[in-house]
Specification:
The chain starts with a strand and ends in a 24-residue tail after the last strand. Helix content is about 20%, strand content about 30%. β12 and β13 form a beta hairpin. The protein has two domains: about 120 residues, Ribosomal Protein S5, domain 2 (2-Layer Sandwich); about 150 residues, lpxc deacetylase, domain 1 (2-Layer Sandwich). The relative contact order is 0.20. The structure holds zinc ion.
């Protein structure tokens, strides 16, 4: 996996946004090396672009929202997880509104579309974000840690609900593992919470078609769960999407307990500030022409020097 990758052809998908409940079409285009993942608001004058980077996160309440000024992109995490999970480094995501389609609440439809289109290698080596020393953040019963090693994610959650309680899941992330074990896991919510959100004009597109909804004892979805630990697998999906906001593929062991989008993002900022704990690494290639200083990479803008 030395070379950067993009999609072999554009892919398009339509659906409704979870919060506004409005239809939206999204197209993912191939992009040149060192573009990173960029979002484009096709419906706004000047077609403003925002990079998928942690420095552009506007909100982490219930979903990850990126933006600059009017150019807002909400619920980016499942598409980012799909792109990152199958190894796409560069892509242009064109959206016709402020919210990405929720589809079935998982990353499976995005993942299948991308894999159907296929990936194309670009003549430029990848730069990896390599963890060199352990870094940990603890707060109020949540913790997250990265340590040196091959990429793996271990997640644990603890919800006082008979169907969830304690769940723990561990994966070493590769395209096929992501597609089979993580991408199909759907987002979940509690019925009381959904009713409250809807009374506040949120989650208007939310239904049993795009989320697992729990009452006090079980799940309301007629088809039941896709996996007994679907809940914790979805948390892994979310952290894969949030880690994509580093702008570079991470090499390290990731462990999280009782995390959230907000906590994942706080951890990323904490990690970036520990400058001795990581380094940027470009695998050796036989072609010296393509080796350039990584500081010049647009995908890595915003990183402290
Ligand atoms: Zn999610």
């Amino acid at each position: 996996m030395i070379w950067q990758k993009t999609l072999a052809r554009p892919v398009t998908v339509s659906g409704i946004g979870l919060h506004r409940g409005e239809p939206v079409t999204l197209t993912v285009f191939p992009a040149a090396a060192n573009t990173g993942i960029r979002f484009v608001r096709e419906d706004l004058p000047g077609r403003p672009q925002v990079p998928a980077h942690y420095s552009r996160v506007l909100s982490t309440a219930r979903a990850t929202t990126l933006g600059e000024g009017e150019a807002v992109f909400s619920t980016v995490e499942h598409l980012l997880a799909a792109l990152h999970g199958v190894g796409v480094d560069n892509a242009l995501v064109q959206v016709e509104g402020p919210e990405l389609p929720i589809l079935d609440g998982s990353a499976l439809p995005f993942t299948e579309l991308i894999l159907e289109a296929g990936l194309r290698s670009l003549p430029w080596p990848r730069t990896y974000f390599m963890v060199q020393r352990p870094v940990e953040l603890r707060d109020n019963g949540s913790w997250m840690r990265v340590s040196p090693g091959r990429l793996s994610i271990t997640y644990s959650i603890d919800f006082p609900h008979p169907l969830i309680r304690r769940q723990r899941y561990s994966v070493s992330l590769a395209t096929e593992t992501f597609r089979r074990e993580i991408a199909p896991a759907r987002t979940f919510g509690f019925l009381k919470e959904v009713q409250y959100l809807q009374s506040q004009g949120l989650a208007l597109g939310g239904s049993l078609d795009n989320a697992l909804v729990l009452d006090d004892t079980g799940v309301l979805n007629p088809g039941g769960l896709r996996f007994s630990e679907e809940f914790v697998r979805h948390k892994i999906l979310d952290v894969v999407g949030d880690l994509a906001l580093l702008g570079l593929p991470l090499v390290g062991r990731v462990e999280v307990s009782r995390g959230s989008h907000d906590f994942h993002l706080r951890f990323i900022r904490h990690l970036m500030a520990q400058r001795q704990a990581w380094r940027l690494w470009v695998p050796a290639t036989h072609n010296r022409e393509v080796r350039r200083p990584v500081a010049a990479m647009p995908a890595f803008q915003g990183a402290p020097a």
